[in-house]
């Protein structure tokens, strides 16, 4: 039986693409090899968003070629086919992101499948998943309509293309039926969901809905599992979902890409530049939902960023009091409009500013987590060790946020939801005991 090795790189959106390709492979009778030397060919799903990701992808392709020799490349870096072939001319084929049909066509060409439908019984009802059994990523759309000057996602993944709402909800229901306890809603621009479909009216289980962000969130929150929203661009209609948070399964958590605190830099980024309005909205959100956890990401070293601009970013961070923050130094990605801007910031200075920002945020995070000591929260267990359980609370997305270490527990297992009392904290994590 033909065996395919698989290397998945990049963000959760790419992970979902990998899951779909693996599901198709299993459905056609291919086995998935966990070693290079046990595979008849290897698929590498690449990332190409920033230079470091490109380098990692090219290294992964080279490793697969060295260890196996038969490699198909797909994913975001695939839009730069010549770059890949210049570095690795022996690759069998190159396809772009979320192009499942092209990937499978190349697999068929280089490793013919077994008899039709031979593998259907091997595919779980929810498909092949690369996450733990108790949580799953739910991708609701592809592409993005924004033209941020630092980003090439629209060039790699195209304009916004929302999935049909019934299709999304049916996938969510299948995942829940197979034991998923948390749905992480992702896309390039989650809150724009449905715009391209002009909010078309649909029916799901006899219920009239509109294909829009608000109806999507409302329907998912009724499934009895945690629902966590990622990549939520702060459009005005996002305000409408804040009152729903903490009711049903919708977690009081928003991942909002803010990018900077200087109006001048935000304008150069082609992002909303009224930072005072952003701060006012954050305060309104917290007034409506005091338990709200806010995560965001920022860029230091954007072309033209002065000391004054960076100070404004630090002041914004202090005023916003965000719970979770990530920070990247500017990367001059090939094809990004920002590359043509003047006054590029030296890499060393950008890295220094990144370190200063994260140090400032560490103090903010530590203070906000300290404020949770003595409170009771529900957590979702990820792992169980001999002397503790490792869990996450409503404010903790897997892999990017903190954890809750439950130090007194009985009979817990991954996927359990349990109430705990917070007994301590650090810069990023909480410590708790079961109630």
Topology:
Elements: E1 3-8, H1 12-27, E2 31-33, E3 41-46, H2 51-67, E4 71-75, H3 81-87, E5 93-94, H4 100-110, E6 135-139, E7 141-142, H5 153-157, E8 161-162, H6 165-177, E9 182-186, E10 201-204, E11 207-210, H7 213-220, E12 226-229, E13 250-255, H8 263-269, H9 275-288, E14 293-300, H10 307-320, E15 324-329, H11 347-370, E16 376-385, E17 388-392, E18 404-408, E19 417-425, E20 430-434
Parallel strand pairs: 1-2, 1-3, 3-4, 4-5, 6-9, 9-12, 12-13, 13-14, 14-15, 18-20
Antiparallel strand pairs: 7-8, 10-11, 16-17, 16-19, 17-18, 19-20
Helix pairs in contact: 10-11
The multimeric state of the shown protein is single chain
CATH topology of the largest domain: pyruvate-formate lyase- activating enzyme
How far from one another are the termini? 51 Å
Runs in which pLDDT lies below 50 for 5 or more consecutive residues are none
CATH architecture grouping of the largest domain: Alpha-Beta Horseshoe
Account of the 3D structure:
The protein is of the alpha/beta class. The protein has three domains: 3-122, Rossmann fold; 135-370, tm_1862 like domain (pyruvate-formate lyase- activating enzyme); 376-434, Beta Barrel (OB fold (Dihydrolipoamide Acetyltransferase, E2P)), CATH 2.40.50.140. 31% of the residues lie in helices and 23% in strands. The strands form five sheets. It has a six-stranded parallel sheet with strand order 6-9-12-13-14-15. Helix 2 links the parallel strand 3 (41-46) and strand 4. Helix 10 (307-320) packs parallel to helix 11 (347-370). The model has no long low-confidence stretch (mean pLDDT 92).
């Amino acid at each position: 039986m033909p065996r395919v090795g698989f290397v998945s790189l990049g963000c959760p959106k790419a992970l979902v693409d990998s899951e779909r390709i693996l599901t198709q492979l299993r459905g056609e009778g291919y086995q998935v090899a966990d070693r290079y030397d046990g595979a008849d060919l290897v698929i590498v799903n690449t990332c190409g968003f920033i230079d470091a990701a490109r380098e990692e992808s090219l290294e992964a392709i080279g490793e697969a070629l060295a260890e196996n020799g038969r490699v198909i490349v797909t994913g975001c870096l695939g839009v730069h086919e010549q770059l890949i072939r210049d570095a690795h001319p022996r690759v069998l084929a190159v396809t772009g992101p979320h192009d499942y049909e092209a990937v499978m066509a190349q697999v068929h060409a280089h490793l013919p499948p077994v008899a039709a439908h031979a593998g259907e019984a091997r595919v779980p009802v929810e498909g092949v998943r690369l996450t733990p059994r108790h949580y799953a990523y739910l991708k609701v759309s592809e592409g993005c309509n924004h033209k941020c000057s630092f980003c090439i996602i629209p060039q790699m993944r195209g304009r916004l293309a929302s999935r049909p709402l019934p299709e999304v909800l049916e996938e969510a229901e299948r995942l829940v039926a197979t034991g998923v306890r948390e749905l992480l809603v992702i896309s390039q621009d989650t809150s724009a969901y449905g715009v391209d479909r002009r909010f078309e009216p649909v029916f799901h289980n006899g219920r009239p809905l509109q294909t829009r962000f608000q109806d999507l969130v409302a329907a998912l929150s009724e499934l009895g599992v945690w629902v966590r929203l990622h990549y939520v661009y702060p459009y005005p209609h996002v305000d409408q979902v804040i009152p729903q948070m903490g009711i049903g399964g919708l977690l009081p958590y928003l991942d909002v890409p803010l990018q900077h605190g200087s109006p001048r830099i935000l304008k150069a980024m082609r992002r909303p530049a009224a930072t005072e309005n952003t701060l006012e909205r954050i305060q309104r959100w917290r007034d409506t939902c005091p338990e709200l956890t806010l995560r965001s990401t920022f860029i230091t070293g954007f072309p033209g960023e002065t000391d004054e601009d960076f100070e404004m970013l630090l002041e914004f961070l202090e005023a916003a009091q965000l719970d979770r923050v990530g920070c990247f130094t500017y990367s001059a990605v090939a094809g990004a409009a920002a590359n043509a801007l003047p006054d590029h910031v030296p890499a060393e200075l950008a890295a220094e500013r990144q370190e200063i920002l994260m140090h400032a945020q560490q103090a903010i995070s530590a203070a906000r987590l300290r404020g949770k000591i003595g409170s009771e929260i529900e957590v979702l267990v990820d792992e169980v060790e001999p002397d503790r359980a490792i869990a996450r609370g409503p404010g903790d997305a897997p892999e990017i946020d903190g954890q809750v270490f439950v130090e007194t527990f009985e009979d817990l297992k991954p996927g359990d939801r349990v109430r705990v009392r917070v007994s301590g904290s650090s810069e990023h994590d909480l410590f708790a005991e079961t109630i």
